[in-house]
Amino acid sequence: MERKIFCWDCNGKKIVLGKKTLIMGILNVTPDSFSGDGIYKNLTLAVETGIKLVEEGADIIDTGGQSTRPGSVWISKEEEYQRTIPVIRTLSKKIKVPISVDTTRSSIAEAAVDAGAGIINNIRGLSEGQEIAKIAAKQNIPIVIMHIKGTPKTMQKNPHYKDLLKEIINRLKKQIDIGLKQGLKKTQIAVDPGIGFGKTPEHNLEILRKLDILHTLGCPVLIGTSRKSFIGKILNNRLADERIFGTAATVALAILKAAHIVRVHDVAQMRDVCRVSDAICFPMLRG
Prior knowledge:
This protein has 287 residues and is an alpha/beta fold. The protein has nine helices and ten strands. It is globular, with a radius of gyration of 17 Å.
C-alpha cells in the first residue's frame, strides 16, 4: 500500500514522514522502566545515551520521566519535571534531530517545548478541556495521541472490547476533533493504537494484522511494540531484553502496513530492519 507523506516542523527541526520509516528512540529517565533501560537522575548518562541513539540511527528521541508500565502510579509534577526537563534542555543543544516529550501533563509539555522539545507524545490522547492540545497548537508543534483503555495502573485488568478496531478508531477520531477545535492542523497529529495499553496479547496481534485501517484517519501512524510482554509470551516468556528479534518481526509488519514511525529501544538493530523493509515495501521512495 502507499504511504502518505507529511512534513513536520518540530520546534525548528524539520522532518519528513513517509519517505522512509522514522525511528523514535526511547530514552527513559525513570527508575522503573519495564524494559530495564531506565536512567534515573543521571543527567550526563541520559544525554550521552540520547546522543548514542542518534548515532545509531534515531530520527526522533522520545524522553519520558513517568513510567507507564502496567500497574505504575503517577509521580508528582515536580518529580517529572526534574527527571525530564534538564535532559531535554541539554540534549536539544547537542543533537540535530527532534526531541519528543512523553508526558500527559500540560505543564510538563509546555516546559519541555520551552527547553527545546519539538513533539508532544501523550499516551492519554486528548480530552475536552485538556490544555495540552492548546499548547501544541500555540507552539505549532506536532502531537502524538494514543489509544488507551483505563490508566497504567488499571489498564491490564481484563480489558474487553466488543469491536476492538472500531472502538480504537472511533476514540481516536474524537480526539483528533478535539485537537482540531483547539487549533491543531490534522497533519500535526499522529495516531498510535496503543499496543499493550489496555489490550490483551490477542488484541495486540489483531491491531498489528489490521494496522492499515488507521490510515483512514488521515494522520501519520506511530506504532510502539518494542520489547513488550506479548512478544515475550509468544517466545516462551523471554525477558524484555531478549525480545529484539520478536520486536523486529513486529516492526517489519508495521512497515508493511505503512506505519510512519516506529518507537523502539534497540535503535541500531531496528535501523537495519527499517531499511530492508522500506526497500521491499516502498521501492519508489528510496533515495
